[in-house]
Amino acid sequence: MIRTIEGIYQDGQIQLTELPQDISDRSQVLVTFLNPSKIDPTKLRQLIDQLETIAGIGQGFEELNAGQTRAIGNFVQEMQQKYGISS
Length: 87
Fold this sequence. Notes:
Elements: E1 7-10, E2 13-16, H1 41-65, H2 72-83
Antiparallel strand pairs: 1-2
């Protein structure tokens, strides 16, 4: 699983802007330092969204390979019921 969380490095500490709820204690992390004078916050958010999308696709492939699938008809029926779409 890949989860990207923004934070700030200050006085030898990294302070996260949010605390992850579904991350176990002692999880492995990668830290990337960005040059604040060269960062476009909108582009940064887009890149984070892309990373999370890629992670979601990877998870989908893992589920597919593990046989965790369902028939397309069942999926369509669930979505119709969930969103009140008539067939």
